Amino acid sequence: MQPFSYAPVADAAAAALRARAGASFIAGGTDMLQLLQENVLQPDELADLNGLPLAGITEEADGALRIGALTKLQEAADHPLLRERHPVVAEALDATASPMVRHMATVGGNLLQRTRCLYFRDVSTPCNKRQPGSGCSALEGENRHNAILGGSEHCIAVQPSDLPVALVAVDAEVLARNTDGAERWIPVGGFHRLPGDTPEIETALKPGDLILAIRIPAHAARWRSHYVKVRDRASFAWALCSAAVALRLDEQGRVAEVRIAAGGVATKPWRLPRVEQELLGHRLDRDRVRLSAVWASEGAVTRTGNAYKAPMLQHTVERALIELGGLA
Amino acid sequence: MPEPAHSFMLTIHVNGVERQVQVDARTTLLDALRDRLHLTGTKKGCALGQCGACTVLLEDRRVVSCLMLAVMAEGKQVTTIEGLARGEELHPVQAAFVEHDAFQCGYCTPGQIMSAVGAIKEGRARSDDEIREQMSGNLCRCGAYTNIVAAVRDAAAQGG
How many domains does chain B have? Predict the structure, then answer.
């Protein structure tokens, strides 16, 4: 680890001041410590955000749930209102990392978790995300875990977090504060950016921006929802593929509203509008589910090691819908 | 608030005893425990949060001490494997690990035991499936998993 200075900050204004002086933020630290250990990040200064009053979940007047950015993943997963109203989010958190990591990591930090692409984390190899212009080693290298959707010729790294995939399904927003103190809401679906030719820019945040909270709107409580994660072992592993589904059936049992997002397969949480469209207005039966899920991998670009993800994505979406619909 | 610095006089409460130690900002809680406080029961495996050998309790919650800067534990309560037994009397989870032969080489064992103590405290060791899920952050390369599950089940039944 390279030397850095450290100081806790007491409020958002102090955080902004340190960010302007070049500090990086640390909260739960579970990803930051790995990136420091491997010399992927070499900050001059760390500003510790844990003193800010941003932990906890509250219900807003209109019924929305507001999750403070410093809420630990385990604390969020255990929250009764979150579990009752938004199972997809609780299930995604349950399936995240290990109990130890869930006691440390924060929901705000989880949105900013960096990719697990082998080459991003290995400083001896070229990587456009870590070192812009150096090239992408994954295109022709070990790419079993890399993206089949949303990639570019510069980067096919997967955004690895489970939580934002579920948050896209429940139409959540992120509250960010810039260094001037101005706050703005960003839909989670628009929070992460496609790599394009600037894979080093990963989110809609500007330097020094601070995540304050995540908000799940009241209308999402109308939806039944479910998260399915497929991985190499039964627990404590990154998603090879995941599907987050939220939907409402009308009185005739037809799909009246539906939002579906995929994880583990794309450079950002990946909304599946064509699958949603194929389901809308139809009864949720096994044939309709299968015919709709086929569209999940539309537009996929596969490489030597990750072609398996295209059928896996279709089947994961199909399974999530079957389980949610009680069709098994 | 303090100005950013590279070195700190840290105060932490380890196994109920207040300890003061000078640490670099880069020092992990794991390295502070092992190299500065000479509490070598906590093991260093991967140093990347993947193996669980360094599991300790921070304010009664399981954490991996390799992924935490020591300075971020300022003023906090830390419990390590050395803090479980009362004199010569083993903690029920330690006793259950001995009883069930829940280890071979023993390197992962302090982390396994701390994780099990945490899981039982959290009320998350109610079935074998739940124990397996809750202990999934602690790897055992000798493959003692079957006996680890039996030990945790037994200790949980006795109230941990």
Answer: 2
Q: Cβ of A8 under 8 Å from any chain B Cβ?
A: yes
CB contact under 8 A, A104 and B52: no
The order of strands in the sheet holding A65-68 is: A57-59, A65-68, A210-216, A173-177, A183-187
A positions 95-134 inside 8 Å of B (CB): 97-101, 103-104
A81 reaches B (C-beta below 8 A): no
CATH for A221-324 (2.60.40.10, 3.40.50.740, 3.10.129.10, 3.30.390.50):
3.30.390.50
Q: Do A5 and B6 touch (CB under 8 A)?
A: yes
Q: Which residues of B touch A96 (CB under 8 A)?
A: none
* A158 in Cβ contact with A117 (< 8 Å): yes
In whole angstroms, give the CA distance from residue A54 to residue A310. Answer: 39
Cβ–Cβ gap B61/A4 under 8 Å = no
Q: How many Cβ pairs within 8 Å bridge chains A and B?
A: 106
Residue of chain B whose alpha carbon sits nearest to that of A6:
B4
Looking at residue B14, which CATH number applies to its domain?
A: 3.10.20.30
B40: containing domain = 7-83
A103:B63 CB<8 A: yes
Q: Which of B83, B109, B127 is the last residue of a domain?
A: B83
Rounded to two decimals, the ipTM of the complex is 0.98
**B123 found inside a domain:** yes
Q: What confidence tens digit (pLDDT) does each residue in A141-177 have?
A: 999 999 999 999 999 999 999 999 999 999 999 999 9
For every one of its 328 residues, what pLDDT tens digit does chain A have, with 9 covering 90 and above? 999 999 999 999 999 999 999 999 999 999 999 999 999 999 999 999 999 999 999 999 999 999 999 999 999 999 999 999 999 999 999 999 999 999 999 999 999 999 999 999 999 999 999 999 999 999 999 999 999 999 999 999 999 999 999 999 999 999 999 999 999 999 999 999 999 999 999 999 999 999 999 999 999 999 999 999 999 999 999 999 999 999 999 999 999 999 999 999 999 999 999 999 999 999 999 999 999 999 999 999 999 999 999 999 999 999 999 999 999 7
Question: Does B115 fall in a domain?
Answer: yes
Q: Domain locations in chain A?
A: 5-48, 221-324
- Residues of chain B with Cβ-Cβ distance to A46 below 8 Å are 25, 69
Beta-carbon separation of B5 and A101 below 8 A: no
Q: Does residue B1 lie in a domain region?
A: no
